[in-house]
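Incident log, structure service

09:12 report received: a user says their structure output differs between two submissions of the same chain.
09:20 pulled the input from the user's history:
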Amino acid sequence: MSVKIRLQRHGKKGKPFYWIVAADARSKRDGRYLEKLGVYNPNTNPATIDLNLDQAVTWLHNGAQPTDTARAILSYKGALMKHHLDGGVRKGALTQEQADAKLAKWLEEKANKVTAKTEGLSKAKADAKAKSLKAEKAASEKRAAAAVEAAKEEVAEEVAEVEAPEAAAEVEAPAVEETATEVVAEEAPVAEEPTAEVAAEEAPAADEAPAAEEANEETEA
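09:34 re-ran on a clean worker, output below:
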């Protein structure tokens, strides 16, 4: 029976995670499997991999063939390295202690790289957050300054509206006084000079005065 080490899909749409399984090569991808070797979750950064290293190496010793993705995961977790070192031990190229020391050193270096990557991602995330907060603060201050300016302009407009009628009244007042003066001047009666005919009618005739005097003298006599 040909055995493959491959991924079996689980999870929900858009956020899958996978089981790492040893299964019959003839079975369906998500069908029955012989043994579950670990879990691979690509939704985290870096990806989360939980692998039973010894069982995976045992299946490799027994001839199981990993798929391309499974091979990358096994290499990342050191399963292929252990499989290679165990082969050297079987051939007598190195002792088991030497193989274990090499594997431990390799795993430590790999862990340091993963830790450095995780710290770098955390720092980048913190820097991005700080930058975002700074930009948001600057935008908030800008909006506040704009609001203050708008309030000042609104107050200035209200003051201008209040002062405008008073200025208009001051400008129009002299015109009203002049108009009133003109109306009074027009309504006042004009003293007309007596004409010559009216003066003649009103003045006593010169001829009548002596005649009256003569009549008075005759009566006294």
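09:41 both user submissions now match this output. Likely a transient worker issue. Closing.
09:42 reviewer note: The mean pLDDT is 78. The first strand starts at residue 3 and ends at 12.
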